[in-house]
Request: fold
Amino acid sequence: MDHASSRRKSDHEQRIYALNAKITGNDDRARSLAFFSSVVEEGSFSAAARALGLTPSAVARTIDRIEARLGVRLLLRSTRALTLTAEGRAYLLAARRILADLDDAEQQIADQGAPRGRLRISAALAHGRLCVVPLLGHFACAFPHILIDVALTDTLVDVAAGQADVAIRFGPLADSGLTARKLGESRRVIVAAPDYLARVGTPTVPEDLLAHHCLNFNFRRAEPIWPFRREGRDFSLSVEGPIVANNGETLGQLAAAGVGVTRVGRFSVAAEIASGQLVPLLEDYNPGDVELIHAVWVGGATTPARVRVFVDFLVERLAGHGVAEKG
Reply:
């Protein structure tokens, strides 16, 4: 082999070595992100080690290397718990996004671009059960490579921190970096059961409610206030009753059982109104107030395809077909 050929081979080997080092470095960086995310999710080095099939010392060394490379403390360690620093929370958010993007990119390529992967959905109890869950079978059929992971709770999850991919929210949205898309709006309605009205009497003006059992939410205001409108003037009444609850479906069920009168989102009692189990009251005094319904998620150019197609699906099924009732 002549000198020129030997030099060309040496240059080629160096390029291969540099490429391998770059690939290995990126792979190590992705593995470090996964380790860090696992430590936070599991709550300890030992639990993360069990989940990853490693030793606790190996996991701890990885976290130490990340902190040394960044020059900041990500986790505060104590004998009882691990606590994220402000830098740790920012790093966790970035880690979850990057890992989700990597997973989505690889899965889309492996399946010729079809959306796939785990899709974590958060919805309120009543709206989720009545309006979202009935649609999920159709979505699963349309996108068989997406694993739907749904959680119904009236507790607000932190979407920005990676606790859900898509959340469905009612009412005004707080300022945040999340992307939001309107799904519809829910008009509120006052209802009672026919047998309750036969027993106690039907209110004909808002003030009549002061003599009724009014069933309220337990989280909106310390003092339950129902708004009304008479001859263009808005006013409100403080009403009372024997039971409070944290969701409209429960209040509607109590009203249908003849316990009292309630004021809830119409979507949560639409079936009972249609069947005659509940009767709308004081509609002439309804102020027409509505709660907007949005889907929120971490947006941007790298939003996973499974998130985009699910939000499009919700818009089509809820806003387009009136499941989330418009005022």
